[in-house]
Amino acid sequence: MSAGAEAVSSIAVNGTTIELVDRGHGRPILFLHPGIGIDPDAPVLKALEHGGRVIAPSHPGFGTSQLPKGMSSVDDVSYFYLDLIEQLDLDDMLVIGVGLGGWIAAEIAVKDASRFSALVMANAIGVKIGDRETRDIVDIWSLMPDDFNKLAYHDPKNGERDYKALPEAVSLAAARNREAYARLAWSPYMHNPKLKSRLHRVSVPALFLWCADDRILSETYGRGYGALVPGARFEMLERAGHFPHIEQPDEFARRALGFAEAQQQAVPRSRRA
Description:
This protein is α/β, with parallel strands linked by helices. It has a single domain (3-272), classed as Alpha/Beta hydrolase fold, catalytic domain (Rossmann fold).
């Protein structure tokens, strides 16, 4: 059994059971995955473990996590995570969200970021930046897998999967991920119309980490998103597409942990409490 698989457990939150990776020690790092889900053996989780205790849940409806009846929006999911954070008593935590996970992180942060030490938003979706006639985000559900990989990855080979050769459980999880993603983000497409006007409420240091080869979301979109969060920092990451945690896991972790450490040094815990 792999180290990642050994670290997978489950937790019931208000009657909904989800799977999560929980490993390492120290300050908590909550990793919120994109719409493709999370692999317990993902190198990025091991890399982040150098910075503390890594908690990487599968969102409700993803992987083997249950989807409670009535949960139909990212806003709903954010309240679930507020309950999870309280139940696990996570405090002074670094929250990292990629893609859909970034959207979820933003929805949590505008409601209650009192347990955050820092926020990292990587290639996040969730807001409308352009005008009504401008499509901010590529219609990923209209794409064939090869076409999606060409847009989503610096190296399309990083997204290739032989689904016929995958274990049945892995194929089923991939199908559930796609179904849950569509349920949460199909309409309005990939955003919450109300979130944009709420981002001024984000009260923690935030880093928007964007990737040069992401052709799902543009740099313009990322800079516009980041400008809505007071004091947010914006950085570019080379040789990665929409999923930097997959294509550049070590550099991704270095940037995220480095940003969080800089905030720790700038603001002593006694002042944050």
